Amino acid sequence: MPSATRRDFLGAAALASLPLAARAAAGDPVRIGLLGAGGRGTDHLKELATLPSIAQVVAVCDVWSVARDKAAAAVQKVSGKSPALTSRYQEVLSNKDVEAVIITTPDFTHARILKHAVEAGKDAYCEKPMATDFAEAKAAYWAVKQSRQVVQIGTQRRSDPGLIAVAKLLRAGVLGKLTRVDLQMNFQEPRWRRDYSQVDASQIDWDAFAFGSNVPRDLRHWREWQLFRPTSNGIPGLWMSHFIDLAAWFLDDPYPRSAVALGGVCLWNDGRQTSDVFHALLEYPKQCLVSFAMSLTNSAGIRNLWFGTRGTFDGEAMTITGAGSSMPDRLLEPVQIEKIPIDSHLENFLHCIRTRETPRADIQAGFSHAVADCMAAAALESGRRIGFDPQRLEML
């Protein structure tokens, strides 16, 4: 790192700043450190660019200098100021000019960075999955619980106006007792492919990317980390987290009682270590069986069906009807889903930084989906049924 940039971090303590409450009253923007300048990080930068009076990016971290510099140029274009740059997230967390961080690094780093962020006194927006390793998920969970920091997990369905309305209806019993859920995601094209033919390996901070793991210093592993262990737990973290978050939310039931799973490489024999076909079955304590299936081998589309004693919710069609029920109290007419106007997921996070309210996808929501993901991944790897003890917060 150039010495001038390092001085930006070391000199950050000399930058005068009011307490957040005073700054909020004065209308000053929240100072953000972006950790990870890839696709998701770039998406967040684009939204932040529309909110210059609310948030300002003052630091950018990425292990690849090209992505880091590109993000810095985007920040400077909006704010007129150059952010501090580094390849080490620890330097952002030690920067006293940074009040909150957005964590958009590879999945296997999320939980540990989140833990370190709140321990450093930073509020944090952490992308999903919250974790791919259960021990790290639990450590992050307790670190957040023991802190005063605002944490938003990036499961953005929690900020969907229609789904917020559906959650209220289902939890109020509009479908009676929910007994089975059928979730499916399917596509056939190799969406994980990333071109790295023109990448100069000397532009990557390999030690920072490895994150203390025995990860090969290999461009494909770096660019397509989703395909390999230990940088990914595969479909459970990458895709199931989107949908299984709905189970804890809609059922008002935070953790599965048990999980089984099967999967493997059925088509894309390209050296990957994660499955291209996967199926998990999770049993929730309120006597509801949740099925999640995914294939990268056939573009069969999406299923999001919730079966209750009074009818069915179709999450793709966004309809609640009496379909499938023959009970005396079945729904005779479709239920109108009244969307609830709300701000975006990121705006909700920034609002909660100011007010110290609990965001929509708080640490409990994040830990709940991480538990389900880690149980399914462990079931696939071990070939056995994985249980969960909600009192001790331990997988069995």
Care to describe what's here?
By secondary structure, the chain is of the alpha/beta class. It has helices at residues 3-10, 20-26, 39-48, 65-79, 89-93, 110-119, 134-145, 161-171, 206-210, 219-223, 235-251, 345-355, 363-382, and strands spanning 30-35, 55-61, 84-86, 100-103, 123-126, 151-153, 178-186, 258-264, 277-284, 288-295, 301-308, 312-314, 319-321, 386-389, 394-395. The strands form two sheets. A nine-stranded mixed beta sheet has the order 13-12-11-7-10-9-8-14-15. A hairpin with a 4-residue loop joins strand 12 (312-314) and strand 13 (319-321).
Total strand segments = 15
- Runs with pLDDT <50, length 5+? 1-25
Biggest β-sheet description: 9 strands, mixed
The CA-CA distance between the termini, in Å, is: 45 Å
Question: Can you give the helix content as a percent range?
Answer: 25-40%
Specify the structural class: alpha/beta
- Number of distinct helices: 13
Q: Report mean pLDDT, rounded to a whole number.
A: 93
Question: Which overall shape is indicated by the principal axes computed on the Cα atoms?
Answer: globular
Strand content: 15-25%
Radius of gyration, whole Å = 22 Å
Adjacency order of strands in the biggest sheet: 13-12-11-7-10-9-8-14-15
Order of helices and strands: HHEHEHEHEHEHEHEHHHEEEEEEHHEE
